[in-house]
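Following up on my earlier thread - several people asked me to post the actual chain instead of describing it. Fair enough. Here it is, all 75 residues.
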Amino acid sequence: MNNLDVALKWLSTGIPVLPCKPDTKQPIIPWRQYQQGELIPSESEVKKWFAKKYNIAVVTGGKRNLTVLDFDSIP
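Reply from S.P.:
Thanks for posting it. Predicted structure:
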């Protein structure tokens, strides 16, 4: 499964996904509009964003009350 597939799967559950710069957690688009859960990106936006090799971020909190644990591996 590639990042586009994963992003579309999250989106299908109603969770906003955002692209981040490779190897970072820095979004490449303005994200505050998605923060409160009033807006989610369209499928076409997600397909456009993840046509490139971007990391995936999910929007937490807000109306969805989503919490994520992020574990990075230690070399």
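The mean pLDDT is 86. That should answer part of your original question.
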